[in-house]
Every structure is written in C-alpha cells, then in structure tokens.
Amino acid sequence: MKPRVDLRLMLVTDAAMSARRGLVATVLDAVAGGVTIVQLRDKTASDVEFAATAAALKDALAPTGVPLIVNDRPAVARTAGLAGAHIGQEDGDPRAVRALLGADALIGLSVTRVEEIATVDPAVVDYIGLGPVFPTGSKPDAAPALGLEGMRAIGARLPLPWVAIGGIGIASAAAIMRAGAAGIAVISAINAAGDPCAAARALRTEIDRGTGR
C-alpha cells in the first residue's frame, strides 16, 4: 500500500546554490526546519554523478523519514530505491514511469497551463506541480508565470493534490495555501538562504497559517 506523503513543503535541490554549505548539509538543515519532502534536481550532472548524489542523499535522509524523489530521471529512482519521481510535460510518458517504478512509487507531473490539465491521469499520477506561479530565475526555461488567480483557476480544475512552484517565498506561502494548494515547492527560498533551517521554519509557519494549523 502506498504511504501517505506530506506535500506541504517540498525542497527542490540546486547544486550551485547550495555549493557553499554542500547539498546534503543544506537539505538536512532544511528538513530540520520543516521540509516534508525533497526533490533532487540537477539538469547538468551526468547519470553517474546524479545517481551517486541520490544514493548519498537517501542515506542522509533515512533517519528523518522524509521521502526523496528525483526530477526527470526515474531510472535513478528505481536503481537507488527512492520514493518516486517528478516529470515535466516533455520528460516522458507518466504511464511508462509508473510501469518502471511500480504501484507504490510517488509520481508527480508538472502542469504549466490550462491546456495541460488533460494530460493528468489520476490512475497514474499522484500529485501535480503547478506553476510557475511567479516569475523565477531558478529555471531559465520556465513557462510564463500564472499569477495567483491563474494558479487558483487551474488548481480548482485539477483532479489531484497540487503543489505550487515558481518564485514563492514567505510573503506568498499562506495565500497559496488558502487558494487550495496541498503544498509549495521552493528552490532559491531555501537553497540560497544563509540559514536553510530558519528559512524552512519560516516557510512552514506561513504554510501552516494558510491552512489554519
């Protein structure tokens, strides 16, 4: 049976932003502050490098119970025994990812515009990454920003829990949760912070405020 996953605060890793502290140290600090799920993302690393990072991060996260998924490379998720994978609209067929990873894996799919709602199959995918909500410098190839109202309109039509991503910080976290999000995903708001633990704690405070916790 697939375990329930807490999507409230997803950290998407960035090797360059976390280089000073180290990726594993940054992630562990963020988890101590309240990150509930980690997505390992690195578009420049080779498959061998990516797999090695995934294995190291899995071992580091094991005592915390926080699940680790990968962005775009489901084969690594399978080989390393990770919790699942997140793919974009151009990263492959979700059905093939499900077949590769099995029924118990967590699979996320990106949605960036209303036309992509039709690609969401609740029998295959577990959650949606919706965005970018705001302009972001973390992904140079990001789609046009949806804005809060655009995010809300698409989110209301999605048949699955959705996690908002793109330019999100402390000032917008509570409003996004009140708009119906299951959580938020951040890159620079934690990876680029001087204190990842404090940054994650502040985000969690706003997320929980937005959900009335």
Task: Describe the protein's topology.
Elements: E1 9-12, H1 23-33, E2 37-40, H2 47-61, E3 68-71, H3 74-80, E4 84-87, H4 94-101, E5 106-111, E6 127-130, H5 147-155, E7 162-165, H6 170-178, E8 183-186, H7 188-191, H8 196-210
Parallel strand pairs: 1-2, 1-8, 2-3, 3-4, 4-5, 5-6, 6-7, 7-8
Please characterize this protein's 3D structure.
Helices cover 37% and strands 16% of the residues. It has helices at 23-33, 47-61, 74-80, 94-101, 147-155, 170-178, 188-191, 196-210, and strands at 9-12, 37-40, 68-71, 84-87, 106-111, 127-130, 162-165, 183-186. α1 (23-33) packs parallel to α2 and α1 runs parallel beside α8. It is of the alpha/beta class and 213 residues long. The protein has an 8-stranded parallel barrel with strand order 1-2-3-4-5-6-7-8, surrounded by 7 helices. The model has no long low-confidence stretch (mean pLDDT 95). It has one domain: TIM Barrel, CATH 3.20.20.70.
Provide a brief overview of the structure.
This protein is α/β, with parallel strands linked by helices and 213 residues long. The chain contains 8 helices and 8 strands.
Keywords:
TIM Barrel, 213 residues
